[in-house]
Specification:
The chain has 5 helices and 7 strands. The protein has 182 residues and is of the alpha/beta class. The chain folds into 2 domains: 32 residues, no CATH class; 146 residues, no CATH class. A 5-stranded mixed sheet has the order 3-5-4-6-7. Strands 1-2 form a two-stranded antiparallel sheet. Helix 3 packs across helix 4. The longest helix is centred in the middle third of the chain and has 18 residues.
Length: 182
């Protein structure tokens, strides 16, 4: 999170109908809009043999990007993806991709997101001893760019204390790019 908390601003308005003004520029992160970050396991699956990892795009959200207008999240809902392929663990990874807000903008660089994705996924899979399980990625928009860079980053870890990061690249069985520019 680091310097991000210093870039957040809190808008105050008056009862007289005046325009909102910025009075406190050192608002802590807890007062900022909810941006779910990191890895979230949506469905554990029945004896999973593959992991599906969804990565949202520009101005996206870890949950809302995959949720239709009728509030059905096609990744999480029991009647959707998990009913068709029950032996999968389905996860969604969230990052701050906010570029159009008047309240808060992301202060992170692409490479920061790349490092976080590789670290989050690698550490989670390593902790439950599934680091060699096949992965299928579903990436939308900017999420595809983050993923492509993450694979390059993962592949570059050939020795040293971050060698386990390479398991992300070597476990890929498929990638679905949706609206990702090349």
């Amino acid at each position: 999170m680091g310097l991000r908390k210093f870039f957040r601003k809190k808008a105050h308005s008056t009862d007289d109908g005046e325009a909102a003004t910025t009075k406190n520029t050192n608002v802590i992160a807890d007062e900022a809009p909810d941006i779910p970050l990191g890895l979230d396991v949506l469905v554990e699956g029945v004896d999973p043999v593959v992991d599906i990892v969804a990565i949202h795009g520009l101005n996206g959200h870890r949950e809302k990007t995959w949720t239709a207008g009728n509030q059905v999240n096609w990744l999480r809902d029991a009647n959707m993806l998990s009913s068709i392929i029950p032996n999968t663990r389905i996860m969604s990874w969230g990052y701050d991709a906010n570029t159009h807000s008047t309240k808060e903008l992301s202060a992170m660089y692409l490479y920061d997101h790349v490092q976080n994705l590789v670290s989050d996924l690698s550490l989670y899979r390593r902790s439950d001893k599934t680091n060699i399980r096949p992965i299928i990625f579903v990436a939308h928009s900017l999420g595809g760019i983050v993923l492509k860079s993450a694979l390059i980053h993962s592949d570059s870890m050939r020795s040293g204390h971050l060698y386990h990061y390479r398991s992300i690249k070597t476990s890929i069985y498929g990638i679905i790019f949706m609206g990702t520019s090349y």
